[in-house]
Design a protein that fits this description.
By secondary structure, the protein is of the alpha/beta class. Helices cover about 35% and strands about 30% of the residues. The radius of gyration is 21 Å and the shape is globular. The N and C termini lie far apart (about 55 Å).
Length: about 325
């Protein structure tokens, strides 16, 4: 393999076009071309960006080393299975598949064809999260709110699969523990599946996470609040800002002295410095690097399965409660 990764892109919807622009801006990648079922849209977009349009997915696979799958979730399993069986590395947008059974089947297939697989959990590359990631230590409680205005795109799956999964993935990374109890409820308003959902997840290590997602809100919100001993971390994934409020034992510059039951403590407010980056471009670059350098992908199939396991459990609880 040369220094540049020969990558094919399938799916040129709203998100697929964003991926296309990001790929073309990556020096590490040679885009061999694109495929989409909508041939008219495919040809128009490929002409606009001077990219080769492939007549079939099979033809695209034959001409690339790796494929970026940015299609509706219901197609992920079929397309990824074909690619893995053809020994092609895969970037699969989140959720990895519709069902946990399909994701586990991909895992079995990967064991026979050891290709690199990265799942598109883009919030892992959010500058706000990256800025405070190392400050998160053994949290006791997490509260997450992800609200979005209504968009018909994405209603082929529930709000749990579409929106909440972002926060469930981050919570899985933070928790590093097995969930032992989940409670959830949801309401279907404009689609056949839940559009608003709340879940409470208790982990083996004692962490409790309260997660809310809605896709019919009047405003956008993507906030996570993390509570741990002697610290409170506030993360705004929308504005990519983060704050850490810590309780220190000793005085430092710009700290505030308070009396506690443990004696005198000092409050420190840290506003994290964040660099403006294109998170989608960063995750694609990370995927390419893992192939060229032959290292583990930063968000691997196991990560996708962990997030989908929570999604699946929450989704089943909602479905059963609405029967």
């Amino acid at each position: 393999m040369g220094t540049k990764l020969k990558l094919g892109l399938t799916g040129l919807g709203h998100l697929g076009k964003i991926h296309l622009k990001c790929i073309l801006d990556c020096e590490e990648i040679e885009l061999v071309g694109c495929y989409d079922l909508d041939t008219e849209s495919l040809n128009n977009i490929c002409t606009e960006y001077n990219v080769r349009a492939f007549d079939s997915y099979e033809d695209l696979l034959q001409n690339c080393e790796a494929v970026d799958i940015v299609t509706p979730t219901v197609t992920h399993f079929k397309l990824a299975s074909q690619a893995i069986a053809a020994d092609k590395h895969c970037f699969i947008e989140k959720p990895v598949t519709v069902s946990l059974e399909e994701a586990l089947a991909l895992k079995e297939l990967q064991q026979k064809h050891p290709v690199k697989i990265q799942i598109g959990h883009v919030e892992r590359y959010n500058p706000g999260f990256l800025a405070v990631k190392d400050s998160i230590k053994n949290p006791k409680f997490i509260e997450a709110h992800r609200l979005a205005t209504f968009n018909p795109r994405g209603t082929d799956v529930s709000v749990v699969h579409d929106l909440m999964i972002h926060d469930l993935d981050l919570i899985s990374v933070i928790a590093r523990s097995k969930p032992i109890d989940i409670k959830a409820n949801g309401v279907s308003i404009v689609s056949r599946m839940a559009d608003i959902c709340n879940a409470r997840i208790e982990f083996e290590n004692g962490l409790v996470a309260n997660v809310t997602a809605s896709r019919i809100s009047m405003k956008q919100m993507r906030k996570i609040r993390i509570f741990q001993e002697d610290a409170y971390i506030s993360l705004d994934l929308l504005t990519k800002e983060a704050q850490v409020i810590s309780l220190l034992d000793a005085y430092q510059d710009n700290t505030i002295e308070i009396d506690t039951y443990k004696g005198k403590k000092y409050i420190s407010l840290f506003q994290a410095d964040t660099e403006p980056v294109n998170a989608i471009k960063e995750e694609i670059k990370s995927f390419a690097k893992s192939i060229v350098m032959d290292t583990e992908t930063e968000v691997n199939l196991e990560d996708g399965i962990s997030a989908l396991s929570l999604v699946d459990a929450i989704f089943r609880l909602i479905e059963n409660s609405n029967v």
